[in-house]
C-alpha cells in the first residue's frame, strides 16, 4: 500500500465502477480476459468494492455482454465486494446464475431518461425493483439502488430535487444497503450538489448515501469535495476517469478514481487505495481501450515520470 493509502484517519468508502460504467461507453469492446484483468488490477490497488459489469441486454450495451464469464473468472478475494448492475428481473436472474451476491438496480429520477435507458416508465421500474428487493432479501443477497439523473436530465433538463427525494424514500423502504445518486450527465454545480447531499443525508444517513459523479463540466472533483464536507462518506468513481451512460447523450466519464483518492488522502481521509497502482492500471487501460484517459492525476503522474522527477 502507498504512503498516501495509510495516512488518513477518518475513512471513505469508494465503489470502483470502471469495469462497468467505465467500459460501457468505450468504442473498443474489451474481451473477457481484459475485463477480468481490469478487475484484478483494481483489487490489487486496494479497492474493496468493484462493480465488475452489468447484466443488461447485449444488444443495448455490447460492451457488457458476457458479464457471466467475467464473474466466473474473477478471483474472489476475502474482504472485496463484487457488484453487478441489473436493469430488471432478468438481470437479477443472470447475476444469481453468475454467482454474485451483490446487485445494483438502476432507475432514473426523470421519466424520459428512464424510458430511453431501460425502456420502462418510472412506475414500472419501481414496481420491478420492489420485486427484485423481495428476491434479494429472500436469498440473503445485498441490494444497492442507483437513482440516475438526480441532478439533471439530458432530455428534460432540471429535475425537481423534491421528486428525487420522494423516489429515494420509496427506495429506502426496500432496505437497500446503499442508494447512489447519479449526476449522470455531470450538470450538478457544487452549491446544488452540497444542498442535495445535505437533504439526502437527512433521509439516508452517511452509511447509506452514495454519490456518483460524472465529470462533463469538470466539476466532479469540486462536487466530491463539497459533498464530503457536507458529510458524505461513500462515493463511486472510475479508474482513469472512464465512463458515461450510452443512453445519456453528452455524458462523459466519472470522477477518476486517482483524482478522488488524491483529493481525499490530501484531506486526511483514508481510502485504502494505492495511487501508484491505479496509475499503472490506467496506463494499461489506456492502451487497451485505445483512447486518452482523462484523469488529471493520471496525466500528472505520467508527466512526472516522463520528466524523471518520480516514478509513476
Ligand atoms: P427491453 O427490450 O424492453 O426488454 O429492454 P424486454 O423486457 O422487452 O425483453 C426483450 C428481450 O430481451 C427478451 O428476450 C428478454 O428475455 C431479453 P426474448 O424473449 O425476446 O428472447 N432481456 C434481457 N436479456 C439479457 N439481459 C437482460 C434482459 N432483460 C430482458 N437484463 C432492458 C429492457 C432493460 C433489458 C434494456 O433496456 C437494457 O438492457 N438497458 C440497459 C441500458 C444500460 O445498460 N444503460 C447503462 C447503465 S445505467 C447507467 O450508466 C447510469 C449509472 O451509471 C448511474 C448514473 O450515472 O446516473 C448506473
Ligand atoms: Mg454512471
Summarize the structure in words:
This protein is an alpha/beta fold and 312 residues long. The chain has one domain: Aldolase class I (TIM Barrel, Alpha-Beta Barrel). 45% of the residues lie in helices and 16% in strands. The chain is built from 13 helices and ten strands. The protein has helices at 4-7, 18-24, 32-44, 67-73, 89-97, 111-118, 122-138, 161-172, 190-204, 220-230, 257-266, 275-289, 296-306; strands at 10-11, 13-16, 49-54, 81-86, 102-108, 142-148, 178-183, 209-213, 234-237, 269-270. Strands 2-9-8-7-6-5-4-3 form an eight-stranded parallel beta sheet. A two-stranded parallel ribbon has the order 1-10. The longest helix is centred in the middle third of the chain and has 17 residues, at 122-138. Residues 1-8 have low confidence and may be disordered. Magnesium ion is lined by residues 21, 182, 184, 212, 214, 243, 245.
* The number of domains: 1
What value does the average pLDDT take? 95
Shape: globular
| CATH class group | Alpha Beta
The largest sheet, given as strand count, sense and whether it forms a barrel, is: 8 strands, parallel
Number of distinct beta strands: 10
Give the SSE order as H and E letters: HEEHHEHEHEHHEHEHEHEHEHH
Q: Write the CATH architecture name.
A: Alpha-Beta Barrel
Secondary-structure class: alpha/beta
Order of strands in the sheet with most strands:
2-9-8-7-6-5-4-3
First-residue to last-residue Cα separation: 14 Å
CATH topology name, in short, is TIM Barrel
Radius of gyration: 18 Å
Helix content: 40-55%
How many helices? The count is 13
Bound molecules: 3-hydroxy-3-methylglutaryl-coenzyme A, magnesium ion
**What fraction of residues sit in β-strands?**
15-25%
Which residues form runs of ≥5 with pLDDT under 50?
Answer: 1-8
CATH superfamily: Aldolase class I
Amino acid at each position: 500500500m502507498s504512503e498516501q493509502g495509510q495516512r488518513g484517519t477518518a475513512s471513505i468508502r469508494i465503489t470502483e465502477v470502471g469495469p462497468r460504467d467505465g467500459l460501457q461507453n468505450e468504442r473498443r469492446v474489451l474481451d473477457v480476459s481484459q475485463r477480468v484483468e481490469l478487475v484484478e488490477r483494481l483489487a490489487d490497488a486496494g479497492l474493496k468494492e468493484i462493480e465488475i459489469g452489468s447484466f443488461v441486454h447485449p444488444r443495448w450495451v455490447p460492451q457488457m455482454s458476457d458479464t457471466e464469464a467475467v464473474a466466473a473468472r474473477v478471483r474472489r478475494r476475502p474482504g472485496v465486494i463484487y457488484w453487478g448492475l441489473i436493469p430488471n428481473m432478468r438481470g437479477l436472474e443472470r447475476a444469481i446464475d453468475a454467482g454474485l451476491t451483490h446487485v445494483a438496480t438502476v432507475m432514473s429520477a426523470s421519466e424520459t431518461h428512464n424510458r430511453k435507458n431501460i425502456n420502462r416508465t418510472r412506475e414500472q421500474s419501481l414496481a420491478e425493483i420492489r420485486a427484485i428487493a423481495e428476491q434479494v432479501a429472500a436469498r440473503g443477497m445485498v441490494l444497492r439502488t442507483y437513482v440516475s439523473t438526480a441532478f439533471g436530465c439530458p432530455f428534460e433538463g432540471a429535475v425537481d430535487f423534491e421528486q428525487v427525494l420522494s423516489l429515494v424514500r420509496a427506495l429506502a423502504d426496500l432496505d437497500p444497503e446503499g442508494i447512489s445518486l447519479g449526476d449522470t450527465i455531470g450538470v450538478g454545480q457544487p452549491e446544488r450538489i452540497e444542498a442535495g447531499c445535505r437533504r439526502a443525508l437527512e433521509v439516508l444517513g452517511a452509511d447509506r448515501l452514495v454519490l456518483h459523479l460524472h465529470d462533463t463540466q469538470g466539476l466532479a472533483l469540486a462536487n466530491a469535495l463539497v459533498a464530503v464536507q457536507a458529510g458524505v462518506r461513500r462515493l463511486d468513481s472510475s479508474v482513469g476517469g472512464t465512463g458515461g451512460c450510452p443512453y445519456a447523450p453528452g455524458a462523459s466519464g466519472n470522477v477518476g478514481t486517482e483524482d478522488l483518492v488524491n483529493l481525499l488522502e490530501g484531506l486526511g481521509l483514508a481510502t485504502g487505495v494505492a495511487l501508484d497502482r491505479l496509475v499503472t492500471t490506467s496506463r494499461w487501460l489506456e492502451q487497451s481501450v485505445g483512447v486518452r484517459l482523462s484523469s488529471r492525476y493520471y496525466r500528472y503522474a505520467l508527466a512526472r515520470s516522463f520528466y524523471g522527477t518520480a516514478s509513476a
